[in-house]
Amino acid sequence: xxxxxxxxxxxxxxxxxxxxxxxxxxxxxxxxxxxxxxxxxxxxxxxxxxxxxxxxxxxxxxxxxxxxxxxxxxxxxxxxxxxxxxxxxxxxxxxxxxxxxxxxxxxxxxxxxxxxxxxxxxxxxxxxxxxxxxxxxxxxxxxxxxxxxx
Length: 150
Description:
150 residues, alpha+beta, Pnp Oxidase, Chain A, 9-stranded mixed β-sheet, 9 strands, 43% strand
């Protein structure tokens, strides 16, 4: 049986390039069996394979992530052309950026989004443990799947 799935041990450059070409992800959280989603601006730290984003403690998605830090998300290219569809779906864990990492994280985030320097930032880190990348330019329904080794 032919499969469109390719399992990879290291993040492929195509995945990294796609993530870095974009700046907004959809984040999905849940609490008490009630799902919720939002969109967040992000900076992708390729060196550490994590997404950095800012959000207040009082937002529903952060309140839920504090209770249940395992989340899901997606980044998609908007297109009506089937042959150009590309996107990722991912799962991972959200944590508040540590005091030790904050200065580095803030400089990376503000470099990408200079307007963020005008406000007090509460930064969060999302470390993916699973990424599925669909790229129809490689063939209809072609998927690369990466999973963090335990």
